[in-house]
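Notes from the 1:1 (GR / supervisor)

We went over the backlog. Supervisor wanted to see one worked example end to end before approving the batch request, so GR pasted a single chain during the call. The sequence is below; no edits were made to it. Supervisor asked that the structure be written out right there so they could see what the output format looks like.
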Amino acid sequence: MSHIGNIEDFSDSSATGIESGQLRLLVLRRGSDIVIYQNICPHTRESLDPVGGSVASPDGQLIHCQRHAAVFLASTGECIGGPCLGESLVPVGFTLSNGDIYLD
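Structure output shown during the call:
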């Protein structure tokens, strides 16, 4: 398992792009909950965050692609608006142990 950080490294209600080896990841945090997706838009196969910063809505429930304004549900990764409607972000398995996040 690869350690990618601690839950406290990620701001609450945020979606932060990071790299771990060859993987581009999007780490979403809402309170004590974490979800991780590959940071690849199904529409263009490019990252969701080319200008950097969080791509989450202020309440952390939606993810917004900075390239083409696609909108995804943070909880499932499903695209609910934009050019890739009905497609989904690819989830990444992880383990959360004592606040530390490890890729499976």
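Supervisor's comment: The radius of gyration is 13 Å.
Batch request approved.
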